[in-house]
Specification:
The protein has 400 residues and is of the alpha+beta class. The chain is built from eight helices and 23 strands. It has helices at residues 10-18, 37-42, 62-73, 81-92, 142-149, 188-200, 298-306, 344-356; strands at 6-8, 23-25, 49-50, 77-78, 114-122, 125-131, 160-165, 172-178, 183-184, 207-208, 213-220, 223-232, 235-242, 265-269, 272-280, 284-289, 316-324, 327-334, 338-340, 365-370, 373-379, 384-389, 391-399. The chain has a 19-stranded mixed beta sheet that branches. The protein has a two-stranded parallel ribbon with strand order 1-2. A hairpin with a 2-residue loop joins strand 5 and strand 6 (125-131).
Length: 400
């Protein structure tokens, strides 16, 4: 399931074949002097060795030679199946050293903590929002909580967790954590939902303009973003967020390419040639224009771009189809999240790319069709405005 290649000597391979696994047979040391288990270890292809021989420590035995060679080469050697199973479970989970909660065993909780949350959606880009203005509703390890709650089958289910906190520079501070526990720089759709939440819950209603609109400021890791809340019946119905200026220089994206801008630049990604346009909208983005987005296999394409050495901080990649001069159809792979129903910064990046490539006109409202809905984006040299609906799905309590 994790795409490991399995190697085994003949007898073990036969057992694994019968279990339905695909295995490459490797010769024992005495069977082949040049290509055998030892030369395979030396080839650099092996990540783990499972050696469960119980025949003692006779240095003449293959199993002892394999374990010794693995130790010399620094290859983890597992000598019990329960250890191998525990490792497999760990590798198949989404937990890493960065998102695993550290627990002080000397001060364990006497009872589970009840965390109040609100599920909100913006073009089906749904996050789990936690009101940390409430001193009784604090989160000690948001990285772990994002892994724990964002699982769509065993948790609440969402594209991640957003903490809403008091701020000294804005009406609210937003911290966004992806489904892999990594902290995002910002999220356009999440910013709009935070603005709706603090407005609807009277945490801050901003400055009304007398025309059914109100201004709010939301702090992110990419700076403070100004939002215009469009109200209906006293509640936020739509929110426009000023995403700031699009950064086009390669070092600001960042992307390891030369030039003042990366526009329609041919590059090789995993051996395939693509023309890319790059910008930063608080997050690094790469846009590729294609004849049709519907037939793409983003589960394969997305990781190839995300982890390519061209992008030192990984990248969000958007695949865009031009419908006409004011309409795009876009699918977006987000770093840390995979393909999402909508991505605010990715949508903005696609409009910036379409304008730089001459498909759309600067300063015009561009309609962007996403898997989860639609957004409207207006790109100028000084800023990018993104407008869309926001929706509260439900309130809940989870025990952790």
């Amino acid at each position: 399931k994790m795409d490991f290649t399995l190697y085994a000597t003949t007898g073990t391979a036969m057992v694994l074949f019968k279990a339905g696994l695909s295995v490459k047979i490797v010769d024992k040391i005495h069977e082949n002097s040049s290509e055998n288990t030892i030369s395979l270890l030396e080839s650099g292809k092996i990540n783990y060795v499972i050696s469960t021989s119980a025949k003692g420590r006779n240095p003449a035995r293959d199993s002892v030679k394999i374990r010794r060679k693995a130790a010399l080469l620094g290859i983890p050697c597992l000598t019990a199946l329960d250890t191998a199973n525990a490792l497999a479970d760990s590798l198949m989970s989404r937990f890493t050293p960065e998102n695993t909660e550290i627990v002080d065993i000397n001060n364990l909780k006497e009872e589970k903590q009840k965390i109040h949350f609100t599920k909100m959606s913006a073009s089906s880009n749904d996050y789990i929002y936690i009101n940390c203005f409430d001193p009784e509703n604090q989160v000690s390890s948001p990285e772990f909580l994002s892994i724990y709650l964002s699982d769509r089958h065993n948790g609440v289910g969402g594209d991640g967790v957003v903490l809403m906190e008091p701020s000294t520079r804005a009406d609210a501070e937003m911290r966004l954590f992806n489904v892999d526990g990594s902290e995002g720089m910002m999220g356009g759709n999440a910013i709009r939902c935070v603005a709706k939440y603090i407005f609807d819950n009277n945490i801050c209603t901003g400055q009304p303009d007398g025309q059914g609109r109100s201004k709010l400021k939301i702090g992110t890791r990419s700076g403070v973003k100004e939002c215009t809340v469009i109200t209906k019946n006293g509640q936020a119905a739509k929110v426009t967020v000023d995403m700031g200026q699009a950064e086009l220089s390669p070092e600001k994206v960042p992307v390891r390419l030369e030039g003042s801008q990366i526009v329609n630049k041919p590059v090789s990604i995993d051996g395939e040639l693509y023309n890319i346009t790059c910008c930063s909208m608080g997050n690094p983005h790469c846009t590729v224009f294609v004849p049709s987005v519907d037939k793409l296999d983003l589960q394969k394409l997305g990781p190839r771009f995300e982890f390519d050495p061209l992008f030192p901080q990984r990248v969000n990649v958007g695949f865009a189809e031009v419908i006409d001069s004011t309409t795009l159809k876009v699918r977006i792979w987000e770093r840390g999240n995979g393909e999402t129903m909508a991505c605010g910064t990715g949508t903005c990046a696609a409009v910036v790319a379409a304008t730089l490539n001459g498909f759309c006109e600067k300063g015009k409202d561009i309609r962007v069709i996403l898997k989860g809905g639609e957004l409207q984006v207006n790109y100028t040299d000084s800023r990018v405005l993104m407008t869309g609906g926001t929706l509260k799905v439900y309130d809940g309590i989870v025990e952790v």
